[in-house]
Design a protein that fits this description.
CATH architecture of the largest domain in chain B: Orthogonal Bundle
CATH superfamily of the largest domain in chain B: MetI-like
CATH superfamily of one domain in chain A: Periplasmic binding protein-like II
Strand content of chain B: under 5%
Oligomer: heterodimer
Largest sheet of chain B: 2 strands, antiparallel
Distance between the termini of chain A: 37 Å
Number of strands of chain B: 4
Distance between the termini of chain B: 7 Å
Structural class of chain B: mainly alpha
Strand order of the largest sheet of chain B: 1-2
CATH architecture of one domain in chain A: 3-Layer(aba) Sandwich
Order of helices and strands of chain B: HHHHEEEEHHHHHHHHH
Number of domains of chain B: 2
Number of helices of chain B: 13
Chain lengths: 561, 326
C-alpha cells in the first residue's frame, strides 16, 4: 500500500494510512466529535464521491494502493476472503468472501485449498469459476501488468520463472480440479495465507475479458456494482450489478443505487463543498484526505466536526539512516538520534494530535496485539542527556534529504538534533524523484524520511519488507532503504515465516520489532490519522481499520429525501 | 503565397521535431525511472528489467525517439499487444490509455475555456483600451488604467479563489464549476465555465486594454489621421476604419500567441476549477512523472503556438495591405 504515496510523491505515509484496530485513542472509529458520522442506513439514492485524483489502477491484478484497493474490493470485485465491514477491532477479522471458509491448510501450511460458494456470478450472469481466480493470480506475474501485489510471486511454488498467462502459459502450482475448488501450492508454509487471499490478486478475471493493460479501464465486475461509464480523470459511474447475489455476501451492504466518482477536483474545493454540504453535496464525501488548512474550518464547529472521520493510521513514518556509511554505520550514533528526537515537535509539524499520534515502535499497534510497543520508554520530547552521552561529546555534520512537502518535518528534525550537536543540512528534492533518490544505493543520503504500511494485519507484511537484507537492490530499492544488514535479523525472519501458528508468529514479530529497535536502523516517529469529511446525508461511514483508515465503501449509504 | 505557405509548414514540422527531440533528451537524463514507478514496491531488478522492456525503455534513446516519431505517422504496436493508432503519441501506462486518446478527450474543455475567455477579454480589453486612448488624461482614463493595473497584478489562482468564495460559496449565484459538454447541455456548459472565463479574462483583458490604449494613442497621433479628419470624415470612421485597423496589427500578433498557448491548456485555471482539460492533464502528468503524457501535452502546446503564429502571419495581409508574402 505504500505505492500510493510514491505517486503522491511525498513522505510515504503522508497521505495514506492503515487504521489501527483497538489502538489508544481511536478504539471507536468515530468522527472527531465523538459521534459516528452515520445515520440510519437505507437502500437507494446516489452516492457522490469527490476526488482530487484518478484511480491509479482498478485492474485487480494491479490495484495495490489505498484508497483504490478498498474501493475496488468493496464495490467491483470479490476476493476469496475479506475483512469484516465493521468499525474498530472487529473490522480486522478475516471472513470468507467468495470462498466457503478461510481455507484448509495442509502439508504444514504449504498447501491451501479453498472452495467457492454457490451462486457467484459476474455482471453478465455467467458463473465465476475457480480457474478465473487462478487466471488473475497468474496475471500478477505478467511484466505487461506491473504494479500489483507481489505476494503470489513470493509465495507460490514455481513462480520464479513464470511470466504470466498472456502468452498462454499457465502456472502449475495453482490447481483447479473443478469449477469450485482452487488449490495453492506454496514454496514454504504461510500461516496467514487466509489473510493473503484478501488481496485483489485473488479476485476473479475471466480470460475472455482479457484486455492487457487496458483491462484497467473496464474491469469486469464480480461485486455489487458494475461500471456504467469511466472517463479517466473525469468521472466514474457505477450502477448495480443485478447478478450479484447478496445471499452469498455477508460483507457488502450495497445500499446506494448508483455511485458517481467525480475526479480531478481541487481538494480545498472538495472540502468547502462538503463543509457547506448543500444540494447534491449532502450525499457526497471526499475520496482523499481533507487538507490541513480545511481542518481549521471543520474542527471548531460541532456540526462539521461530527462529520469528520479521523481513523488512526497503521502506517509508520520513520526517520531513516544510511547504515552503510559513517556516521550512521555506528549503532550508537543511530541510537543517539533515537534519544535526541523531539517527537512532539514532529507531531506538531504534522498538524498536532488531531492529525497524528507519536510512534514508539515500527509495528503499528494493530500488528502488535492492539498495544503500541515502547522499547526505550522515552519522553515525547526526547532525552537530550542520554543522546549526548551516546555521542561521547562528538559533534556531527550530516545531510538529510526530504521531499519538498516535508519541509516542516525536516526542520523539526533539524532543531531536535541541533540540541545534541548534530548539525543537519536539509536537501529538499521534488516529490517525483524522492523515492528514486533514496532508492539508489549509490546515492542514499545520510538521513531521510520513509514510511511503510502493512497490506493486512500481519507482521509478515511489515518487518521482512523493510529489514530483510536480502531484499536490497542496487537501484529502485524500496523497503530496506536503510540497507540494514543483520544476519541474526534475517535468520529470525526465516524462523518466524516458517511458523504455522499465526498467533505465535505475531508474538514473534513483536519480539523482532524490539530487537531491531535496539539496532535503530530507523527511528519510528508517527502514526498518522486519515481525516475524511462526509456530507450531511451520508450513512454508515467509518474509517476501516484495515483499509488505511479509509471509509469502508461496503457500508456507505445516503439518506433518502 | 503557396511557396510561402509550404516553407512555413516545413518550418513548423522542423520546430516540432526539435521540441520533440529536446523533450525526449530531457526525460532521458532525469533520475525518475518510469519502469520502477510502474513496477510498484519491492520489485526485483529482474522484474524492473522485464517491465522496462515491455515499455520499450531498454532501447537506446535515439531508437526510442525514432520509434516515437514514426509512430506519430504510422502508428505502432506496443508491449502486451496494445495497438496505438495514428497518430500514436505513446501510451500512458499510468492512465492505461494511448496519449492521443487522452489529448482528444481533454481538448474540448481547453478549447471551450480558451475561446470563451478570449472573446471576453477581447471585448473588455479592447473596449477599455480604446475608450482610455480616446479619453487620454481624463479621470475616466486614469480610473480605467488603475483598474487594469490592479487586475493584471492579481495572480490567476487568487482571482479564481476570490470568485469561488464570493460567487459560489457566499452568494450562491453559480454552482461549483464542473465541465459539461456543449452538445450535452449548452446552458450548463456556459454556466459552469463563467467563472473560469472571467478568471482568465481578468488577466488578459487588463493586458490587452493597456496594449490597445498605447497602440491607439500612437496611431491616432499619426499624420494620416489628421488628414482623415481634415478631409471631414466622421470621427467614428476615423477611429474605427483608420485608427483601430492600424493599431490592431501588434495586438493580433500577441493574441495569436496567447490563444495558441491557452488552447493547449490553462494549467492553473483548469487545476483550480477542477476542469479536465489539457492543462490539468499536463499537471497530473508532471506530478506523476508520466513522461508520455508530458511529451504529448508539450508537443500539442508547441503545435498550437506555431500554428497560431502561422495564422497570424497570414492574417496580417488582410489587416494591413502593406504586408506582402515573400
Amino acid at each position: 500500500m505504500s505505492g500510493t504515496t510514491r505517486i503522491a510523491g511525498g513522505l510515504l505515509a503522508a497521505a495514506l494510512v492503515i487504521g489501527v484496530a483497538g489502538c489508544g485513542s481511536s478504539k471507536s472509529p468515530t468522527a472527531s466529535g465523538g459521534e459516528p458520522a452515520t445515520g440510519t442506513p437505507t437502500k437507494g439514492g446516489t452516492l457522490t464521491v469527490l476526488s482530487n485524483q484518478d484511480f491509479s489502477h482498478l485492474d485487480p491484478t494491479r490495484n495495490w494502493t489505498m484508497p483504490h484497493m478498498d474501493f475496488g474490493i468493496r464495490l467491483l470485485y470479490r476476493t476469496l476472503t475479506t475483512f469484516k465491514s465493521e468499525p474498530g477491532a472487529a473490522g480486522a477479522e478475516v471472513v470468507p468472501d467468495m470462498a466457503t471458509d478461510l481455507g484448509t491448510p495442509s502439508q504444514g501450511g504449504k498447501v491451501w485449498k479453498f472452495t467457492l460458494k454457490d451462486g457467484l456470478k459476474y455482471e453478465d450472469g455467467t458463473p465465476i469459476v475457480a480457474d478465473d481466480i487462478k487466471y488473475n493470480v497468474e496475471r500478477s506475474f505478467a511484466p505487461e501488468l506491473p504494479g500489483g501485489p507481489n505476494y503470489a510471486q513470493v509465495y507460490l511454488a514455481g513462480g520464479d520463472k513464470y511470466k504470466g498467462p498472456l502468452k498462454g502459459e499457465r502456472l502449475k502450482s495453482i490447481e483447479t480440479p473443478d469449477d469450485k475448488t482452487i488449490i495453492f501450492k506454496l514454496k514454504r508454509p504461510v500461516a496467514e495465507f487466509s489473510s493473503t487471499v484478501t488481496l485483489p490478486t485473488f479476485a476473479p478475471v475471466p480470460k475472455a475479458k482479457e484486455a492487457g493493460a487496458q483491462y484497467d479501464n473496464r474491469p469486469f465486475s464480480s461485486g455489487p456494482y458494475k461500471i456504467e461509464t469511466y472517463d479517466r480523470g473525469k468521472e466514474l459511474v457505477l450502477v448495480r450489478n443485478e447478478h450479484w447475489d447478496p445471499a452469498t455476501d455477508t460483507v457488502r451492504k450495497a445500499l446506494p443505487d448508483k455511485i458517481v466518482v467525480k475526479q480531478g477536483l481541487r481538494q480545498s474545493v472538495i472540502d468547502d463543498r462538503l463543509i457547506d454540504s448543500r444540494g447534491d453535496d449532502e450525499n457526497a464525501l471526499t475520496y482523499s484526505d481533507v487538507s490541513a488548512a480545511s481542518l481549521a474550518k471543520i474542527l471548531p464547529k460541532p456540526e462539521t466536526r461530527a462529520r469528520l472521520i479521523s481513523e488512526i493510521s497503521g502506517c509508520t513514518d520513520m526517520l531513516g539512516f544510511n547504515t552503510t556509511k559513517a556516521p550512521f554505520d555506528d549503532p550508537k550514533v543511530r541510537q543517539a538520534v533515537h534519544f535526541a528526537l523531539d517527537k512532539q515537535a514532529l507531531q506538531t509539524a504534522e498538524g498536532g494530535p488531531d492529525m497524528a499520534e507519536i510512534a514508539t515502535a515500527y509495528l503499528p499497534p494493530a500488528l502488535s496485539g492492539g498495544q503500541a510497543q515502547d522499547v526505550y520508554g522515552l519522553p515525547q520530547t526526547g532525552d537530550v542527556e542520554k543522546a549526548k552521552a551516546l555521542l561521547g561529546g562528538k559533534t556531527l555534520d550530516v545531510g538529510m534529504t526530504i521531499s519538498t512537502g516535508d519541509k516542516l518535518v525536516g526542520e523539526a528534525v533539524q532543531s531536535s538534533l541541533k540540541r545534541v550537536g548534530i548539525n543537519v543540512t536539509l536537501n529538499p528534492v521534488d516529490p517525483s524523484v524522492y523515492y528514486d533518490t533514496i532508492g539508489d544505493t549509490a546515492k542514499t543520503p545520510d538521513m531521510f524520511i520513509y514510511g511503510w504500511c502493512p497490506d493486512y494485519p500481519s507482521g509478515a507484511t511489515f518487518l521482512p519488507m523493510i529489514f530483510d537484507s536480502r531484499t536490497i537492490v542496487e537501484k529502485g530499492n524500496s523497503g530496506n532503504v536503510w540497507q540494514f544488514k543483520d544476519k541474526a535479523v534475517d535468520a529470525k525472519i526465516d524462523e518466524i515465516q516458517a511458523m504455522t501458528d499465526g498467533d505465535a508468529a505475531n508474538k514473534a514479530w513483536v519480539e523482532l520489532d524490539k530487537q531491531i529497535m535496539e539496532a535503530s536502523p530507523a527511528v519510528p516517529f508517527m502514526w498518522k490519522k486519515k481525516p475524511l469529511l462526509v456530507g450531511k446525508g451520508i450513512t454508515g461511514a467509518y474509517g476501516h481499520p484495515v483499509w488505511s483508515g479509509q471509509l469502508d465503501y461496503a457500508t456507505l449509504g445516503v439518506k433518502q429525501k | 503565397m503557396i511557396v510561402y505557405l509550404a516553407k512555413r509548414i516545413a518550418a513548423v514540422v522542423g520546430i516540432l521535431l526539435v521540441i520533440c527531440a529536446v523533450t525526449f533528451v530531457i526525460f532521458y537524463v532525469v533520475p525518475s525511472d518510469p519502469a520502477i514507478q510502474a513496477c510498484g514496491k519491492t520489485c526485483t531488478p529482474e522484474r524492473v528489467a522485464e517491465v522496462r522492456a515491455q515499455m520499450g525503455l531498454d532501447k537506446p534513446v535515439w531508437e526510442q525517439f525514432g520509434v516515437y516519431v514514426v509512430g506519430i505517422f504510422a502508428g505502432r504496436t506496443l508491449g502486451a499487444g496494445i495497438e496505438c493508432g495514428i497518430p500514436c503519441f505513446g501510451f500512458s501506462y499510468q492512465n492505461s490509455l494511448p496519449v492521443w486518446d487522452l489529448l482528444v478527450d481533454r481538448l474540448g474543455t481547453s478549447v471551450s475555456l480558451a475561446i470563451g475567455a478570449a472573446v471576453l477579454w477581447l471585448i473588455v480589453g479592447l473596449t477599455v483600451g480604446i475608450i482610455s486612448a480616446l479619453r487620454q488624461g481624463t479621470a475616466l482614463d486614469r480610473t480605467l488604467m488603475i483598474a487594469t493595473l490592479t487586475s493584471a497584478s492579481l495572480p490567476v489562482y487568487f482571482v479564481a479563489m476570490l470568485l469561488l468564495l464570493f460567487v459560489v460559496r457566499i452568494a450562491e449565484i453559480l454552482p461549483y464549476p464542473a465541465y459539461v459538454e456543449l452538445a450535452e447541455d449548452p446552458v450548463a456548459w456556459a454556466s459552469n465555465l463563467i467563472l473560469p472565463w472571467f478568471t482568465l479574462a481578468a488577466l488578459y483583458a487588463a493586458m490587452y486594454a493597456r496594449l490597445s490604449r498605447a497602440q491607439m494613442i500612437e496611431t491616432m497621433s499619426e499624420p494620416y489621421i489628421r488628414t482623415a479628419r481634415a478631409k471631414g470624415l466622421p470621427e467614428r470612421t476615423v477611429v474605427v476604419k483608420h485608427g483601430m485597423r492600424a493599431a490592431m496589427t501588434p495586438i493580433v500578433t500577441i493574441f495569436g500567441m496567447d490563444l495558441g498557448g491557452l488552447l493547449a491548456g490553462a494549467m492553473i485555471t483548469e487545476t483550480v476549477f477542477g476542469l479536465p482539460g489539457i492543462g490539468r492533464l499536463a499537471y497530473d502528468g508532471i506530478v506523476k512523472a508520466d513522461q508520455p503524457v508530458i511529451l504529448g501535452t508539450t508537443l500539442l502546446a508547441a503545435f498550437f503556438i506555431v500554428i497560431a503564429n502561422l495564422v497570424v502571419d497570414l492574417v496580417y495581409a488582410v489587416i494591413d495591405p502593406r504586408v506582402r508574402y515573400s
